[in-house]
Amino acid sequence: MADSYSKKENNKKKIKKKQDKQSRREDRKVNNNKGKSLEDMLVYVDANGNLTSVPPHLQPVEPIKKKRDTEENATKSDVGIGMITYMNEKGYGFITEKVTGDNIFFNFESDTAFKRGMKVQFKKESSHKGFRASGIVIIN
């Protein structure tokens, strides 16, 4: 007797399910953790958050830089070159830094000769909202 389409599909699903179950069972047999020591099963996390098999006391230690130190160094030594990409009549604008492509905020007086597209040199300072440009000088 001929089976209907839905019976054939159900039989195919049952056979597929049995095959999947059998393959999972064989996989568990091959990849079981029986007989392994505790040290073989442990995984550690390194300083960067990656999983590793090396215990923390044997991992190389890098000194941690404090945020304040890096910001102070940035304000002392970061002189950038960029282009003025936006200016507003309210007295602020943005400079796109040439090296990093970051937009740096700056304030200006209404009587300054800044225009969009000018190349400028500036001192990059850290503020509570991010970096801002000061000491802006027009360059050719």
- Spatial strand sequence of the major β-sheet: 5-4-3-6-7
State the separation between the terminal residues, measured CA to CA.
Answer: 91 Å
**Major sheet characteristics:** 5 strands, antiparallel
Mean pLDDT: 83
Could you tell me the number of beta strands? Answer: 7
| Count of DSSP H/I helices | 3
Name the overall outline: elongated
Q: Using only CA atoms, what is the Rg?
A: 32 Å
Low-confidence stretches: 69-77
Taken as a percent bin, the fraction of beta residues is 25-35%
The assigned structural class equals: alpha+beta
Return the string of H and E elements.
HHEEHEEEEE
Helix-residue proportion? 25-40%
Descriptive notes:
It contains 3 helices and 7 strands. With 140 residues, the protein is of the alpha+beta class. It has a 5-stranded antiparallel beta sheet, with helices on one face. The protein has a two-stranded antiparallel ribbon with strand order 1-2. Helices cover 29% and strands 30% of the residues. The longest helix is centred in the N-terminal third of the chain and has 26 residues, at 5-30. The protein has helices at 5-30, 38-41, 67-77, and strands at 44-45, 51-52, 79-87, 92-97, 103-107, 119-127, 130-138. The radius of gyration is 32 Å and the shape is elongated. β6 and β7 (130-138) form a beta hairpin.
